[in-house]
Amino acid sequence: MSLQNKKIGIALCGSFCNLHKAFEIIQLLNSNGADVTAIISYNVARLNTRFFSAEEVLSRLEKLTEKEVIREITEAEPIGPKDMFDIVLVLPATGNTIAKLANAITDTPVLMAIKSQLRNKKPVLIGISTNDALSNNAANIGKLMNMENVFFIPFSQDDPENKQSSVIFKDEYVKPALESALEKKQIQPLITV
């Protein structure tokens, strides 16, 4: 399946050390002819970190997408009613966002975007990036894996020696995972080396 003219909402959460991957993925989507809109969590919109300032993130996203960034719940709510996206791609998806999504908490623009997308029975693809995926958040990830229209980019442990519970999505699977999720299929294998 081609990504040409596919309307993709890319929702960024506060795994700040991995935001650079989101910028690269937006470039990949652009080069494949997708129509990309950025959605950001409150933390991404407001926190300055050692990786990026909030202003730099906003500026880069608006330059890459040539659109205003969705950064308020009220801006994300119309995603479903207006049928804005073919798919919502959440990456990096933090443990906090995963836990809230698994437990029906909608208190950020990213979570509202997901909820609004799912109301139309349209796909959401998650690129997980969390230090507690194989511990406290394992049950939440399991719940999401059983949720209709929620799919995952294949992932692996990022530092098994020093962070035994930490996993991160694999960049090289983003495009095939998107294509698969658009057909409402989970790409396999889900867990990679």
Any overview of this molecule?
It is built from 8 helices and 7 strands, in the order βαβαααβααβαβββα. By secondary structure, it is α/β, with parallel strands linked by helices. Strands 1, 2, 3, 4, 5, 6 and 7 form a 7-stranded mixed sheet that branches. Helix 7 (138-145) links the parallel strand 4 (124-130) and strand 5. Helix 1 packs parallel to helix 3 (54-65) and helix 5 crosses helix 7. It is globular, with a radius of gyration of 15 Å.
Features:
193 residues; alpha/beta; 7 strands
Indicate the topology:
Layout: E1 7-12, H1 19-31, E2 35-40, H2 42-46, H3 54-65, H4 73-76, E3 87-93, H5 95-102, H6 109-118, E4 124-130, H7 138-145, E5 150-152, E6 155-157, E7 167-169, H8 174-182
Parallel strand pairs: 1-2, 1-3, 3-4, 4-5
Antiparallel strand pairs: 4-7, 6-7
Helix pairs in contact: 1-3, 5-7
Class inferred from helices and paired strands: alpha/beta
Spans of at least 5 consecutive residues whose pLDDT stays below 50 are: none
Strand content: 15-25%
Number of strands: 7
Quote the average pLDDT. 95
**Which series of helices and strands comes N to C?**
EHEHHHEHHEHEEEH
Distance between the termini: 26 Å
Helix percent reads: 25-40%
Shape: globular
How many helix segments? Answer: 8
Largest sheet: 7 strands, mixed
Radius of gyration: 15 Å
